[in-house]
TrEMBL record:
The lineage of its organism: Bacteria, Bacillati, Actinomycetota, Actinomycetes, Mycobacteriales. Pfam families: Hydrolase (PF00702). SUPFAM superfamilies: HAD-like. PANTHER family: HAD FAMILY PHOSPHATASE, HYDROLASE, PUTATIVE (AFU_ORTHOLOGUE AFUA_1G12880)-RELATED. InterPro entries: ACAD10-like, HAD-like_sf, HAD-SF_hydro_IA, HAD_sf, PGP-like_dom2. This is HAD family phosphatase. It comes from the Bacteria.
Length: 218
């Protein structure tokens, strides 16, 4: 139940998905590359070479919804064949990728607890339209008051617009929003808008930061 103290505070929590609600992205990459039969370095190299946008991998266009999953897998398949000398069917990309995605159950349980106390929560994620059923399977229904996904918005973090949309949909102010993400560039963008940033490194320190933010006694 939301108490008057919660209403008066007007504060909200905004969290990232990959590496916060799940295990670190690096672990997923290692799992994926190993299962597919190449090295993590070769996989990352293919993502860079397949990109048409300087300074980012092809994941950027996929997460903005600019390209489809089919085009994404086709382009990285070509690059991996050039890099490794071996052609590999990427039709099972999604299944293999999410087999290496594990929920951060401890943090998800904590979020469910503070949600039940009436605090406002939002999910802000760079994610893929075709992967919605997979990533949603990790996130409990009703946990977030607001969900902002890059593929739905046509932009991605650290684009400032992603943070502006989230704050607006929370009916909040940037200074009243704590943003938790494992990516420093995303956090710096949030701070430019006026949000407060906590870089996620482990669940325990994130919980302490959130409790402090809400003035909450565990």
């Amino acid at each position: 139940m939301m108490t008057s103290a919660h209403v008066k505070s007007g504060k909200a929590l905004v969290v990232d998905y990959g590496g916060v609600l799940t295990n670190p992205v690096e672990e997923t990459i290692v799992h994926f590359a190993t299962k597919m039969g190449f090295t993590p370095q070769q996989f990352i190299e293919s993502l860079v070479k397949a990109s048409n946008v300087p300074g980012e991998t092809i994941m950027g266009d996929l997460e903005r919804g600019v390209i489809s999953e089919a085009e994404f897998t086709q382009r990285i398949s070509k690059e991996l064949a050039d890099i490794t000398g071996v052609e590999r069917d990427m039709g099972d990309f999604r299944d293999v990728w999410f087999a290496g995605r594990r929920p951060n159950s401890e943090f998800l349980e904590y979020l469910a607890g503070i949600k039940s106390e009436g605090y406002s929560l939002a999910l802000l994620s760079n994610n893929v339209k075709e992967w919605e059923s997979q990533w949603r399977s990790i996130v409990p229904d009703g946990l977030f008051d607001v969900t902002v996904i890059s593929a739905d918005e046509g932009m991605r973090k650290p684009d400032l617009g992603m943070f502006e949309v989230t704050v607006e949909r929370l009916s909040s102010n940037p200074a009243d929003c704590l943003f938790v993400d494992d990516d420093l560039a995303n956090g710096e963008a949030a701070e430019k808008l006026g949000m407060v940033f906590h870089r996620f490194t482990d669940t325990q320190s994130a919980v302490r930061a959130i409790d402090s933010w809400f003035g909450r006694t565990p």
